[in-house]
Amino acid sequence: MATTQPNPEDLTARARIRDAALLHFGEHGFERATIREIARTAGVSSGLVRHHFGSKQALREACDDYMAKTVRELNDQAREGHKDGTFGDINHIAAARAALIPYQRYLARELADGSAAALFDQMVEMTEAWLATFEETGDATFTADRRARATVLTAMALAVPVLHEHVSRGLGVDTMTPEGDHRLAMALLDIYSHALVSPEDAATARAALDKVRDQTPAERDAALRAFKERQP
């Protein structure tokens, strides 16, 4: 199973503080989490937290940096496992999903708070690289550019941890557990491996969207009024 490379820092008090912060920021949010409780969970003094990080904001930035590094390493391992065009005997993407489960709550909080911009942008770049790989041997044509599609795909994927409570309720199992993540992954595979819209229907939808885009404000208002009049 893929794992991140051991880091000597992970054996230090600094790493314990970071891990405790990931837990508390994810559970309580940045504003409600306290240095005192983070220190208690890490088994250190509040003074040592400030010695290593200086402030709660700096600690948050260290957590974001660690998340970015972790995601990057897992992605690199997945790409290495896929270099021959197949996923081989070990599915590195599945292993990466399992490795990220402990960080889902933190990631959801950061995204909901409007933070983690650098991490989001990094994940978009990774998704764009994957799309480029998958499209090398395909003959499909696209209306939207690859960057746009990568951005939307990343946002769709990251919406799952943000909407964790609702998705878990719908699936009947906590998506932040191995069992829940497996159920979620199986659903995603079914969705990604089966086209939901035929090329003909997509072309019709594109034409309709272009028509709406080109409408004047008066035409849009008239269309909205007509729609409301049709409602029961």
Automatic annotation (TrEMBL):
UniProt-recorded name of the protein: AcrR family transcriptional regulator
Record Pfam families: TetR_C_25 (PF17933), TetR_N (PF00440)
Lineage of origin: Bacteria, Bacillati, Actinomycetota, Actinomycetes, Streptosporangiales
InterPro entries: DNA-bd_HTH_TetR-type_CS, Homeodomain-like_sf, HTH-type_TetR-like_transc_reg, HTH_TetR, TetR_C_25
Region (Disordered): 211-232
Keyword field: DNA-binding, Transcription, Transcription regulation
DNA-binding region listed in the record: 34-53
Keyword Zinc: no
PANTHER family according to UniProt: HTH-TYPE TRANSCRIPTIONAL REGULATOR BETI, HTH-TYPE TRANSCRIPTIONAL REGULATOR RUTR
GO molecular function terms listed in the Swiss-Prot or TrEMBL record: DNA-binding transcription factor activity; transcription cis-regulatory region binding
